[in-house]
């Protein structure tokens, strides 16, 4: 069959458009696949674990270093991570920007968000880590999450960045939520705390 040259050009053009806009869904069932997916992920992609497909929680320290973009976030769903129970073991670090973390579970390790403009929803950190969630970045949003940290010396949520918001979270720890003195202009709505102390500094609601 003879295809006109301009038609071929048009098809090539379509191919480029498709390649740039198609999100890849990476289903992971092992820790190694999760590590690999975190390295190769692009803006708009999804990294998924189906709880039923994963025999054991993932083990290790997982780093999300890539950036999504405004309007093309990178999404992680359904991941479950088991730490080693050391008080400062870290399960997942979000170093990048524009990630959506939905419905993940971390046990016996910390969750750290260093990047900006990330969204953490319906997730939980349990066990007895020193920090349930450590928020270094700016403009991150945390909703509907549960953080349990060490009752004798742990902090549920440690906030050291700016303009981070916490909405509808539940916290159990020695210190529930600590806004560091270097932190400005955060927001807390409907936090349910089971704890001895709630330290807040520079919070504007
Ligand atoms: C992600 O974006 C930040 C700016 O917020 C930049 O500093 C960083 O280098 C970027 N990271 C990568 C892996 O491109
Ligand atoms: C947050 O998670 C809840 C529970 O899974 C879900 O119903 C809700 O749509 C999520 N919010 C967003 C903005 O995705
Ligand atoms: C926190 O308390 C636990 C026991 O409850 C202990 O094992 C750990 O060493 C303490 N950590 C620090 C930094 O004091």
Automatic annotation (TrEMBL):
Family matches, as InterPro entries: Pectin_lyas_fold (IPR012334), Pectin_lyase_fold/virulence (IPR011050)
Domain of life: Eukaryota
Signal peptide segment: 1-19
Keywords from the UniProt entry: Signal
Protein name in the entry: Uncharacterized protein
Organism whose genome encodes this protein: Orchesella dallaii
């Amino acid at each position: 069959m003879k295809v006109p040259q301009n038609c071929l050009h048009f098809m090539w053009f379509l191919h480029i458009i498709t390649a740039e806009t198609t999100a890849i869904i990476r289903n992971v069932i092992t820790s190694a696949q999760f590590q690999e997916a975190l390295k190769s992920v692009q803006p708009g992609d999804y990294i998924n674990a189906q709880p039923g497909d994963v025999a054991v929680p993932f083990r290790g320290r997982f780093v999300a270093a890539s950036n999504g973009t405004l309007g093309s976030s990178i999404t992680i769903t359904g991941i479950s991570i088991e730490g080693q129970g050391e008080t400062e073991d870290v399960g997942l670090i979000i170093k990048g920007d524009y990630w959506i973390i939905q419905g993940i579970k971390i046990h016996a390790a910390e969750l750290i968000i260093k990047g900006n403009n990330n969204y953490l929803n319906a997730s939980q950190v349990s066990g007895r880590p020193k920090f349930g969630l450590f928020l270094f970045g700016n403009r991150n949003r945390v909703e509907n999450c549960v953080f349990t940290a060490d009752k004798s010396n742990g902090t549920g949520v440690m906030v050291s960045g700016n303009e981070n918001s916490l909405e509808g979270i539940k916290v159990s720890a020695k210190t529930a939520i600590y806004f560091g003195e270097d932190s400005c202009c955060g927001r807390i709505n409907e936090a349910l705390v089971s704890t001895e102390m709630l330290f807040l500094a520079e919070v504007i609601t």
